[in-house]
Design goal:
By secondary structure, this protein is an all-alpha fold. 84% of the residues lie in helices and 0% in strands. 3% of the residues are buried.
């Protein structure tokens, strides 16, 4: 969920950069897009780390899968 948010922000910044009137504004929006991309990657890494930290039985139970 958080990753989707940051990717959405990145796409919005790239669109704003394309529509920017001046080079400084364009550069700022491209910089923000890069920062949002890093945040999205960080959110994905945190989700993977969390999934690996949770015991398999609890993870499967949350998914509604029988661990038989």
């Amino acid at each position: 969920m958080e990753q989707a948010y940051w990717l959405g922000r990145k796409r919005a910044s790239l669109k704003m950069a394309q529509n920017a009137g001046g080079c400084e504004a364009r550069l700022i929006h491209y910089d923000l897009a890069g920062r949002y991309s890093v945040m999205a990657m960080s959110a994905e890494t945190q989700a993977i780390d969390l999934a690996n930290a949770v015991p398999r039985s609890l993870y499967l139970e949350a998914k509604g899968v029988d661990d038989a």
